[in-house]
Amino acid sequence: MEKERTIDLIDRNTAAIEALIRVKIDIWQERVLFTDLWWLGVGLSVVPWIVWYLVRKKSSTDRLFYAALFVAVVSLTLDVLGDQFGIWHYRFNVIPVLPTYLPWDLTLMPVTVLLLLQAKPSANPYAKAIFFALLASFVGEPLFDWLDIYHPKNWRYVYSVPIQFLIYLGAHAASRRSAFEPLA
């Protein structure tokens, strides 16, 4: 009996979420799609990767993609959690059904880290991590807030600094991996 009640509650909650997502898609189609801020998001999703592709060290492409994947997965996961817990939310999404701003998580964060990893590779990674954390937290976030794309409801930019610092250090460590064990 308790299991059926739980299932019913979960199913009703899911139906309510699905109804709200349909409303979100309608708003997006009518008011966001093809606006200047939507096109900005599309551009920010593609152009930084093109720039990186042109300036990358070709012999390090696989290793750097490994670091980029780390950054993207961590950024995306934390962004979804922040949105779902009501700490912040995004407007003018490139894709309406995703709660995160994909250009930030899948392009700007990873590409910025990749460019920093490539620039002066022997430089102190802690100094680079501090630079990245300050850049992302006190330039990137305020810029997207000013553009009304990002709305920090219960979040201050300074809270992001240690998170961004750790993300960079994790990517640095991932980029320094020299070998993997064979699968077989």
TrEMBL record:
UniProt xrefs under InterPro entries: CBO0543-like
Annotated TM spans: 37-55, 64-81, 101-119, 126-144
Keywords carried by this UniProt record: Membrane, Transmembrane, Transmembrane helix
Name the record gives this protein: Uncharacterized protein
